Amino acid sequence: MSVLASLIISGGAWAGGGNISLTEARLLLADTPPVERVEIYGDCYSACTMFLGADNLCIDHNAAFYFHHPVTRSEYRSGTWTGRGIPHDAHLRIARHYPAPLRHWYLATIPGSDPNTFYRFTGDQIAKMAGTPLC
């Protein structure tokens, strides 16, 4: 089995219709394929933030992480985000990939929030909140 030495996520990483899907995030978080190191630089939106739960992770202090209420793929594509069609446990399935302090914030903030509202954290803020190492 091959092992990736590093997975580098850099700039504009989106979920849904973007360049990192929820499925890809789940596969990489499950070490399929195995990854020795995950590095995040630049903007990290949506399902990209699930990499914050990866082992051997480091983040750039200037990286920006954007969290929002889950939306369906069809809502994402249409640009009309209501969050009404998501499974009732979607928040829990996403949050389980976050370090505990970030998971607690997410579950206290995101359910019931407007899906069009993004909550932004810098790499420095995530490092302080969740203890995630900086690159």
Automatic annotation (TrEMBL):
Top-rank taxon, per record: Bacteria
Protein's name in the database: Uncharacterized protein
Annotated source species: Salibaculum griseiflavum
